[in-house]
Structures
1.
Amino acid sequence: MYRYDPYDQKIVDERVAQFRDQTRRYLAGELTDDEFRPLRLQNGLYIQRHAPMLRVAVPYGLLSTTQIRKLAHIARTHDKGYAHVTTRQNFQFNWPELKVVPEILAELATVEMHAIQTSGACIRNITSDPFAGVAGDEYIDPRPWCEVLRQWSTFHPEFAFLPRKFKIAVNGAEQDRAVIQCHDIGLELKRDAAGEIGFRVLVGGGMGRTPIIGTEINDFVPWQHIITYCEAILRVYNRYGRRDNLYKARIKILVKALGIAEFKRQVEEEWAFGKNGPSTLTEAEVARVATHFTTPAYASLPAEDAGYAAQRSATPAFAAWARRNVLAHKVPGYAVVVLSLKDPQRAPGDITDAQLELVADLGDAYSFGEVRATHEQNLVLADVRQSDLFAVWEKARAAGLATPTFGLLTDMICCPGGDFCALANAKSIPIANAIQARFDDLDYLYDIGDIELNISGCMNSCGHHHVGHIGILGVDKNGSEWYQVSLGGSQGNNTSIGKVIGRAFAAAEMPDVISKVIDVYRAQRLDGERFIETVRRIGLDPFKIGVYGDAAIIERKQNA
Amino acid sequence: MPKLIRNGRVVDDSAEILVLDETQAPEALTLPEGQVFVPLAVWQAHKGMLSGRAGVGVWLDSHESVEDLAEDLESLSAVALNFPKFTDGRAYSGAALLRSRYAFKGEVRAIGDVLRDQFFFMQRCGFDTLQPKAGKYSDAQLEEAVASLKDFSSPYQAAIDQPEPLFRRARRVA
């Protein structure tokens, strides 16, 4: 993974000094709340319900075990012994005191970490495929490009005060695992007919209050020009994006208002000035960054480890875990392991300091000292030998990190919600835990199969509910918490936005509602058909009838 | 005398920023003596008369475009860009455009909600003159605030102050 040189380190060290001084001036009354707010947000520091929340950047989800141990130390020393993995592959601490945040940042800087631009109206942490470099369907490794873009976007002076936040994702494989269609800029690495690397550029996607799927603005921007092209998009947005209404300030609204043809015209007119300028990437720079992402020293192994097969036969619980949480690796004899953070005893995405220490140990012993965070709020060991899987499983299981449900109903994405977040309309963690408690039978979960259930506690959609096969959105009705259910959303290559099925439900109704939805699917599915495929084939009406009953649907149609 | 920061140093400044309220037609204004920044509407109404006068600059609000001044830049020694709120970042693009696309060599002044914690970004985008609101900082605080111009020593990306990105400026070894 990328390691800092003295320039990178100096920028992070200077940031620590800058924020230390800003915090001092704030606490001394020299900076007002309004003046300090954007400064702390651009350092990932929110004021939450109980205490500040600090969001630490994990660029494109990659972590060294040294960094993991530092996060464990921070959780133990400055927090209540746990951290939370976010849907931007970042880490959050929920309980640090404002006055110790500069100290935390100084500690992070010693392991090449920071909290730069993890919030605020600026370019946020760039996200990517958690299986980059190891997936069999990868065309081009996105990590070097993510790092190049990370450096470009870090403290970009022109784009620190955009109309609204700005999110970029990069994918380089046949399957989109970075939700690029729901980003302000989505980049798909590809090759042209001559074999040259470039990017298909999508713009104006996003979730939030107005979910929109991104539109292609350019089908191939050669790699040399990706920075100048992004700068042109950002400049048009910075100048003409709406600033009068927070809810209409994202770039998607500007793209919709102008139309993609006019937006593209403006961007390319702007690009004509920057193209071929000094920000044009050089082969030397890309090669320098790419040397940090070379293939690890894989051993030459048989494609199928005999011991691994025997262990699966002998130990059904291991086989169950291997079936869901172990994925194919492009190198023979290796596997990708998903360490689940969906233990029903904990909030989805939460991890304790002791678990973090164990993950670091596993990473060192079995996966070249690296760990990844996923936007689905799990951790990944990307390079495990098949012959080591049993040992990894035993240790992970003892630590509550081997819930064998990757990709199943209870492996849900869930924002921190009203228990922590000041923006939330409703709690989300208790809903997740109640659904996990209802669906605690593994055989039943396996029978339901691949499905994505996503929960957001408010319209900001941090829990990606719009693209959940089942989406749950917390809403406020006259001061009480209600939950709206949508079906048919999807991430990946066939990204779609879910549709709300009807009136919202009280928290206590939610497990029953999900049961009814699943019952409809199991009654209606064709052989081998996944949940999302059934929804697409039969539409929402059978689910509405299953959930609300015939009478309610007929009455509504008559009133319509 | 009021003070501001120019090219990294605290200096006296007596320029007046002329503000037009809704009731005043630009044609009806009488201009003060000395250095003055007039609103775009006043400039456009009196361009013929004003362009001959020394010490006249134009200020643009954040919704106004530098393109509207493109033809006139040769006859202007200073342009000011207003930050109605420091979180309104349009003037960063405006300053960068003045310096790059229009190669404007005169003064580019930041006015309005100009705060020390944004000095570094402003300077990078081509502002040479930073004028916090009157009374925002004491003389001593303004002297102290100059330090913010040096918050970062080697930024990654190209901007007006460093036209080459770090990967072209420095020999970085993997």
2.
Amino acid sequence: MPLSVKHDYPSAPDESLVRWAQSGDTEAFEQLVFRHRDKIFARAMMMMRNEDQALELSQEAWVKAWQRLAQFQGESSFATWMTRIVINLCLDQLRRQKRVRTESIDEMQEESGGVERQLPVADPNPTAGLEQDELRRRIDEALGKLTEAHRTVVVLHEFEGLEYKEIAKRVGISIGTVMSRLFYARRRLATLLQSLKRERSE
Amino acid sequence: MTLDLQAYVDGELPSDRRQAVEAMLSGDAEARELVEGLRRLSLLVRSHEPEIKVPASREFYWSQIQKQIDLVEREEIRRPAGFALGWLRWLVPAVGAAAVAVVVSLRPGPEEVTLAGAFDSAQTESSAVVFRSESDGVTIHWID
């Protein structure tokens, strides 16, 4: 009769949970889902800006992860590996929706290479005095006002920490386009955050 | 040059261009201001990543995932049977064709070489070789 071992899932490190899940332990996998579900959903939400799609894609990412678990060798953290899966699914979805394309005057300027130097930096700290939670909310709001093409490069660069080369490869654009999209996105974010400051003082 | 300034802030410039940007920054106040603005903004965004939570209970969220995993695994169990049937679809006509070829070869044709042994075909370009064994009543064709 096989000896069944009951693991202490909540206090086990990711590495152990992954190892147990790799041998077919769904309870260990459920613990990984529970531990990282908010981060994975948040990433999908930031990319898609649509709760239903983000929910669906984040769940699809977990199913894919279960299927590919044997391929995970621990070169990165489990959370990083999972985030890459959900981002790839979001990029595929955006491509299918053909939404990552010229969407605004900013992008048209950007594609024609009209990058200007100015960034609204008149106020050295446009968000001074805001509570941390409020600041997060405002930044999320500002990100929501960017075009999908611009938001994608900001998310991949600022939150995922990807280099220009890697972003270009994943999104399927040139490094030059990554750079100009990032610049326009930052300029727009700076403008949006400045207008928040004005709103507060009115 | 603006994008070079941004690449400088992001640590993406090769060393020769980085030195050129640093030289330029020392004499360009506007460029310095841009670099500082980009640096502040990047730091601000990175350190305030929006915190978004799954809008569903742990149980419901997991149950949806588990349902899909079960579905995928059932599909995978079913697939090998389908794969074998797919091979059968090809195997039956292939065996049939081979049987016809053997029957045709067993019948001696008037144009075939009737001496025992192997002979190169007269058309050397096609590298066809015919072997005929009178005693066994068998002809074998090699076409290269």
